[in-house]
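Protocol step 4 of 5: obtain the predicted structure for the target chain.
Materials: sequence only (see below). No template structures provided, no constraints applied. The aim of this step is simply to have a reference model before the mutagenesis design in step 5. Sequence pasted as it appears in the construct record:
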Amino acid sequence: MADHQEDEDLKLALKMSMQYNPPEPKRSKPIEESGSGSQSGGGSSSGGESPEAKSRRLQRELMAAAAEKRMVLFPKSPPPVQNKARDLPIAVVANKSGEELGSGLGKELSVEESNQLFSMVFGNEVSKSVLAQWTNQGIRFSPDPETTIGLVQHEGGPCGVLAALQAFVLKYLIYFPDDIGKASPSKGVWTLSKHRYVASDSFSSVTEEAKTRALVKSMCEVLFMCGNNNRAVIATSTNFEDSSTNQKVEAMVGGLPIESASDLQKILRFETFTTQSSCLNKLQGTITAFQSRMGALLFLISALLSRGLESIQADRDDPDLPLVTAPFGHASQEIANLLLCGEAVPNVFDGRMDLGGGMFLKGISKNVEVGFLTLLESLNFCKVGQNLKCPKWPIWVIGSESHYTVLFALNPSVQEENELELRESQIRRAFDARDQSGGGGFISVEAFHQVVKETNIRLPTEKLNDICATGFIVWSELWQVILELDQNLGGIKDSTGMMGKKVFDIYHFNGIAKSDINGGGQAMAVEGGAVPTQRPRLTKLNVSVPPKWTPEEYMSCAMPSSSEKDSEVNQPKPVQHAPLVDCIRTRWSRATCSWAGDPPSIV
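Step 4 output (structure tokens):
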């Protein structure tokens, strides 16, 4: 009878434990009451427990035993975990092979960090139109076959981010095709010229996969450059689909409104990577976030966080100004420099300029992979140093008063210096290193004597006295003297009349989606079905550097004269002019250019 009762109790306990909602526990006597009852029951532990209390104790033990058996036989599935992206910590996790793995969505910015970041980028009084520009620009290639290798711009403002990234993308597409799976030279994409492979201009043959890999590699290179090659920080949104984990978090990011630092803090997540392989994997998996309408802003934030917000402020001459300039929301020179050389310095000259009293201005401290030229130099507003003017690869971001575009060559030989250019570059570097005028092009007499000694220029006493008579030396006057000075005295007087001759092709890409001036071609459809007012443009230019340099020609190099235009000797092709030509002349003085169709636009 007792065994039958125990079986019934066990069945009851098992039935109760398997219920979805546990039964309401039976009410027990107050502790004081039960305690007093046990004490009054006698001092023997074996006989002090009442039959009712013993029955309840056995029932609880049976229920516990039954529940334990059930857990072993029927493991309960864990309840679904709700998305709590804000609580996900940043982590650098490694698998068995030591490769870093992403940690979900990553870490969110603190309130203080988000306030600092938002103020640094946009300032405290940013307009909604500027915010709309920066939250509606993805990093996407043009669907137009003629400009398929170019990143298309739909909104004004983020062009500085797109142009800098475009320059690195072209570096991989043109000079590192094997790294991105592009067709090998044997397949005709590259041709052999002067014992080296030179890319052809069959840009439409580049596959989507190759373009995406070039983009991912470019992003990784820029971010690690900003992180001193030690780390890269990738910023994404809480609303994106990570294809590497097939994890869909809410919906794809689609131009989420950001009107304040608190909005940024809510949607932004970031992860830190210390190896390029892990960074590449993460970028590949989250590329849809950067292709979304917030892509350009996310990449800029990634670069800023990779550099570090405190380091960014230390790079700048005036950290109180926003990086996105008012009132039109253009990317500042600091943004362009950060993405080109890894430092958010505001100037384009080489090194630092000492102003005295412990004050100095910061410029470009090292040679770069891709360079920068600006229309402002042709207008004498600044002087681009050799670090940006002569990059490792013949690719330049072109800056105008309000827009950034890209200039590039397919043959790296355009960077090779002939005898005249090599000598000019040597003397110019020595001169610029002592130029404290901010690119004004003049130095003191004392500094001039240092330049003469360093570059082994031996001027006759009369010439030396003449050039030092005013108390300072202007570059144009010094160069005129060197052009007339014999080579055995350190000059470059040319008796053949052929020194400096150079002819080559170069390409210009403007990614802004505007209308075709001639109305040719089909209008390019953009996201949402809207039709832009202009298409991205890729223009091929033929550049010719005149063969003979004389003092008279050098001093009249600003604009081609009417006699030069009519000269068939110096100008074998019709000379055309556009503001881009003025930019090109800051790199190749007195270059003349020609092209087919409409003039290339840098605005």
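Step 4 remarks: The CA atoms of residues 172 and 512 lie 22 Å apart. The chain has a mean pLDDT of 77.
Proceed to step 5.
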